[in-house]
Inverse folding.
């Protein structure tokens, strides 16, 4: 048995304190740590840095401090020391390989406390984010140089850690050789009781001939990084190709006002509908599961979005840009269609082809569901905690984990906002 049994999570998202003992966090973080607590046989402390800014995540929510499923400690990550970890009786530390936390594995090594890094963004993805989000060429060059310097530090940190959990194939392929205990997972919020069924797919596709509008959907932040602006380029091209379709767009972000204007200016009101942000579990996911034929994914970078597995869990296949995250999932699941990056006309062309072959969409719907059925929220956290406990008990699970990961049906999935 472990003498110390506290799981210490160094969370990269920042916390904003509010009056009346409240704090602004994300629902995903709360649900993820709550699920961890189900399987971790001890207490949990989440360390976060403080911010005065509002949270820009779509699922930001106000929580009462005394109702959190963990102890929240606000601290500068520079102040995390071996003595502090001993004070918390830490059995294991979960951290993220990023510039505020690259020193954590060294602190843990000095303290004699096992450390697992949880990686999400590959070097390629981080460069893509810089290129999409930075218009000034000099600032962009400076940020790219800084990104390379951070990559060197991250690799050193990962190599020093006792374990590595990789959210998505890009960082798994890039970092697995650096650490003796790597594990692959994918991002999802879907519990077993939420999954679509084969009967759901049969009902949804019944009597859906090629003469009926193809029903398309997108959900996520309406920003360039997620390719939200390309959605309307796809819609305009589909109209040019005389494809009958309906496109539903769920989300908020910097491009939202522009998108409303473009929909009106290009007379797309009859086929493009902006949904805002309906509740995911009670409104949006059931809507997708019961009504949607295809998910259109114009992501310009390979972040490990929960969108992929959650869409497949509804029995809905994805047509998406060839970013490294979606490519990895498409190869593993043998489901979905990959089109060239940043080519909305090619995306529209593929959708037009699929509109004329509804049986291919239906077949891919079953494949998508089959893949998602193997990877629920509960199974994911059970597998992750098993990996964590093996490391905390000083066993060496690398051979077991590598065997699981090499076989697609046994891969594990998880939540990206849990470090």
């Amino acid at each position: 048995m472990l003498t110390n049994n506290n799981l210490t999570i160094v969370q990269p998202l920042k916390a904003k304190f509010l009056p009346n003992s409240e704090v602004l966090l994300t629902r995903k973080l709360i649900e993820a740590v709550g699920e961890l607590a189900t399987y971790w046989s001890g207490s949990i402390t989440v360390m976060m840095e403080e911010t005065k800014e509002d949270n820009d995540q779509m699922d930001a929510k106000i929580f009462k401090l005394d109702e959190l499923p963990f102890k929240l400690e606000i601290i500068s990550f520079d102040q995390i020391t071996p003595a502090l970890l001993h004070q918390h009786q830490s059995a294991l530390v979960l951290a993220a390989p990023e510039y505020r936390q690259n020193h954590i594995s060294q602190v843990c090594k000095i303290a004699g406390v096992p450390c697992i890094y949880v990686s999400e963004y590959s070097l390629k993805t981080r460069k893509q984010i810089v290129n999409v989000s930075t218009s000034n060429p000099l600032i962009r060059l400076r940020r790219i140089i800084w990104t390379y310097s951070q990559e060197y530090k991250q690799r050193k940190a990962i190599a020093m850690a006792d374990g590595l959990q990789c959210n998505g194939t890009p960082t798994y392929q890039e970092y697995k050789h650096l650490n003796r205990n790597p594990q692959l997972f994918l991002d999802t919020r879907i519990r077993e009781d939420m999954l679509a069924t084969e009967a759901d797919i049969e009902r949804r596709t019944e009597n859906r001939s090629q003469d009926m509008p193809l029903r398309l959907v997108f959900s996520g932040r309406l920003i360039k990084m997620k390719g939200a602006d390309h959605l309307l380029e796809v819609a305009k091209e589909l109209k040019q190709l005389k494809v009958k379709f309906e496109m539903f767009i769920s989300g908020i972000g910097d491009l939202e006002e522009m998108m409303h204007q473009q929909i009106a200016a290009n007379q797309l009101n009859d086929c493009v509908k902006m949904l805002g942000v309906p509740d995911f579990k009670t409104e949006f996911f059931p809507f997708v599961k019961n009504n949607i034929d295809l998910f259109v994914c114009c992501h310009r970078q390979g972040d490990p979005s929960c969108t992929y597995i959650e869409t497949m869990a509804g029995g809905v296949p994805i047509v998406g840009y060839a970013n490294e995250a979606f490519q990895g999932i498409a190869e593993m699941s043998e489901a979905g269609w990959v089109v060239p990056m940043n080519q909305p006309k090619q995306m529209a062309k593929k959708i037009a082809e699929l509109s004329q072959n509804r049986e291919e969409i239906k077949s891919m719907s079953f494949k998508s569901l089959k893949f998602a059925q193997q990877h629920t929220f509960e199974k994911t956290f059970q597998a992750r905690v098993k990996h964590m406990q093996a490391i905390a008990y000083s066993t060496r699970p690398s051979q077991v984990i590598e065997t699981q990961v090499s076989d697609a049906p046994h891969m594990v999935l998880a939540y990206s906002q849990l470090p």
Q: What stands out?
A: The first strand starts at residue 6 and ends at 10.
